[in-house]
Amino acid sequence: MFAIAPPVSQQVRLQVRRGEHLAPTANLAPGYVQANLAILPETLAADFLLFCLRNPRACPLIGVADVGSPYIKTLGQDLDLRSDLPRYRVWRDGELHEEPSDIHHLWRDDLVSFAIGCSFSFEEALLADGIDIRHISSGCNVPMYRSNIQTSPAGPFSGPMVVSMRPMKAADAIRAIQITSRFPGVHGAPVHLGDARQIGINNLDSPDYGDPVELRTGEIPVFWACGVTPQAVIAASRPAFCITHAPGHMLVTDILSAHQSVF
Predict the structure, then answer these.
(1) Which sequence spans correspond to the domains of the chain?
(2) Left, alpha or beta for 109 (phi > 0: left; psi -120 to 50: alpha)?
(3) Fewer CB within 10 Å, N- or C-terminus of the chain?
(4) Mean pLDDT of all residues in 27-40
(5) What SS3 state is found at 202?
């Protein structure tokens, strides 16, 4: 009798849960959708849901948990939001308070969890087309920047869009637009390419989140809306309590990337 191995996505979550993987999740479990995470008290949940609906490029929702539940069963079997991300961020009054690898000790019955599609999910398709993904080939986290692109406010939530950047040759950038436009549930096509100063970014070597990557001769920066946007909004809106993922440290779901456009 042969044992059936769990899917790669579940294997990754179990490794994370056991503390065996604490690094960013880019290129882990290829073929499976990854998700950003925002967890807020129920009193803020309706406004945050409206914020996501008004800003689908930056915050494409792929799942919402019931009040007090650390599970979103539509995203995966044996999935626990309290332990299955490599690193979390805990915010109090808009200030970063701690970055634990487990949030069981912080869980409350009034918390509502939101899973937001992540651009790591379309990188497999770019790699398959022969496009270099610099943070993967360099073994670092993707660079992310606060732009001057403003989100549409909802309740107390407002602030700038965060964008992730991948350097590409012009021909690869055109192909990347064609490819990623098929993935609206994980940010879709880029929001900007070329001169970063036009969207308020003056120094590509100093990202607000993640790591800098090399921009080589003949390449242009290509920017996608990023699921770290809620963290910039939280810093601006200053809710009393909130938990998010640490940038680049995502939830790996059981949803196949090829099917994510149904969201």
Answers:
(1) 10-119+230-257, 122-225
(2) alpha
(3) N
(4) 94
(5) coil
Write the single-letter amino acid at 203: N
Looking at this protein, which amino acid is placed at residue 190?
P
Which long-range contacts link 90-95 to residues 24+ away (Cβ below 8 Å)?
90/242, 90/243, 91/231, 91/234, 91/235, 91/239, 91/241, 91/242, 91/243, 91/244, 92/240, 92/241, 93/238, 93/239, 93/240, 94/234, 94/235, 94/236, 94/237, 94/238, 94/239, 95/235, 95/238
pTM: 0.91
Please name the residue ranges forming H helices in 104-196: 120-128, 134-137, 170-180
Q: What is the pLDDT of residue 263?
A: 39
DSSP 76: -
Rg (CA), the chain: 17
Residues in the chain: 263
| CATH class for the domain made up of 10-119+230-257 | alpha beta
Instruction: Please give the CATH number for the structural domain made up of 122-225.
Output: 3.30.2040.10
The half-sphere exposure of 8 on its side-chain side, counting CA atoms within 13 A, is 11
Token pair belonging to 3:
């044992």
Residues of the chain with pLDDT > 90: what percent? Answer: 90
C-beta of residue 88 within 8 angstroms of C-beta of residue 39:
no
Relative to beta strand 144-150, strand 160-169 is: antiparallel
User: In the structure encoding, which two tokens stand for residue 244, read together?
Assistant: 């998010």
Distance CA 126, CA 175 (A): 9
